[in-house]
Amino acid sequence: MHKKIVIFGEMLWDCFSDKSIPGGAPMNVALHTQYLGLETSFISRIGNDNWGKELIGFVESKSLNTDLVQVDENYDTSRVLVDDTDKENIKYEIVEPVAWDFIQWSKDMQQTVDKADAFIFGSLAARSEDSRNTLFKLLETPVLKILDINLRAPYYEASLLKKLLEKADIVKINDDELNLLIDFFKLDKDWGKAIEKLTEIFELKMVCVTKGSAGAIIFDGEKNYSHPGYKVKVEDTVGSGDAFLSGFIYKSLSGDSPKEILDFACALGALVATNKGGTPQYELEDIASIQKAQ
Predict the structure, then answer these.
(1) Per-residue pLDDT tens over the stretch 73-93
(2) Mean per-residue pLDDT over the chain, rounded
(3) CATH 2.160.10.10 for the 1-168 domain, yes or no
(4) Measured distance CA(269)–CA(291) in Å, rounded
(5) How is the beta sheet containing 216-219 ordered, strand by strand?
(6) Predicted TM-score (pTM) above 0.85
(7) Sign of the dihedral through C-alpha 207, 125, 240, 250
(8) Which of 3.40.1190.20, 3.90.780.10, 3.40.50.720, 3.90.1170.30 would CATH assign to domain 172-294?
(9) How many CA atoms lie within 13 A of 218 on its CB side?
């Protein structure tokens, strides 16, 4: 299967007291889809600094195309300051403004999106005017659009989410985000009814809700499908949700059924959870081994 996708959003460093780790949900998804064999182009922006050079070196070492990663002369590469002293209440400070707040539209960028089979985007990279304007210009392209809402307080509001949802064909959210959308749009508290109404309001082809270790559900406009998730020995859960989304994208573009999409995506999320870090290397056979074991 040769499919081309474009992912738009942040790339950054998660900075702990003792270490810094490459991250950002869109960047993680881009790396996973590249592992899976999708031709992945990643749109982002870094600063002209050592943080940026190291980040580019990291993703290029994993064969990710960085042609559309811009370099900013005025703003620094993004860092997220992580306070994990309380493991039950980890706090994040997403430093701003940073380079990816100023992603500029270009003809090369547009031409790449024009040729893509899918365009994947989130809400965080739309927090600033420059990147938001670029994103919405690209969203005018007639291509399959997949929204990973990925809400990060305080960088979202109902009016922006409404505009993003109106541009999407497929939406992936987690259970907490679904509850927020229920409050924002005054939906039924019953998840099934809420998802059905979201699909109707925004004319969506599919909604996927992840539930952590409890698996995920898909509504395809007609029927709900669910998967209980795979039980594995967890090393850490960093990047598991991003891996799930990548598996979801891969199988959706393959034309697989909702049941097959869920099974593969849950297995990939579980596989990543058995490793340290959010983007460990793996082969398709490793995902199959998770599926076969259970």
Answers:
(1) 999 999 999 887 876 677 788
(2) 95
(3) no
(4) 11
(5) 69-72, 39-47, 4-8, 118-122, 144-148, 170-174, 206-210, 216-219, 224-227
(6) yes
(7) positive
(8) 3.40.1190.20
(9) 22
